[in-house]
Design goal:
Elements: E1 2-6, E2 12-20, H1 26-46, H2 56-88, E3 91-99
Antiparallel strand pairs: 1-2, 2-3
Helix pairs in contact: 1-2
């Protein structure tokens, strides 16, 4: 790594190594998992006849309390697995930053 190399024209250049990778947005995976969990819960709840004393809405709402967090947890797990794969595929590159002008003058 080089810091502040000044050439004859007064151009300051710095070279640095950085790691580049594509990281998933975990919030999207959690939200999508919660949606899939809610959808699966509603489909499974509608397959059975509801109790006439309670009704379908209360039964579905009760089971949604379990389905939505379970789906969100599964979505987060999938997102974390994809994140680990992206860490394995990370690349290290050298970037160069140039400052043109008088390096002694504060901007």
């Amino acid at each position: 790594m080089e810091y502040g190399v000044v050439d004859d024209n007064g151009i300051v250049s710095e070279k640095t190594e950085v790691t580049i990778r594509r990281a998933p947005r975990l919030g999207v995976f959690v939200a999508l998992g919660a949606f899939v969990g809610a959808l699966a819960t509603l489909i499974l709840t509608s397959q059975f006849t509801p109790d006439p004393a309670v009704g379908f809405a209360a039964t579905a709402g009760y089971f949604l309390l379990f389905g939505v967090p379970a789906g969100a947890a599964l979505g987060a797990a999938v997102g974390l697995i994809i994140d680990r794969v992206s860490v394995a595929r990370a690349r290290t590159v050298t970037v160069e930053r140039e400052v043109v002008g008088d390096p002694d003058v504060d901007e």
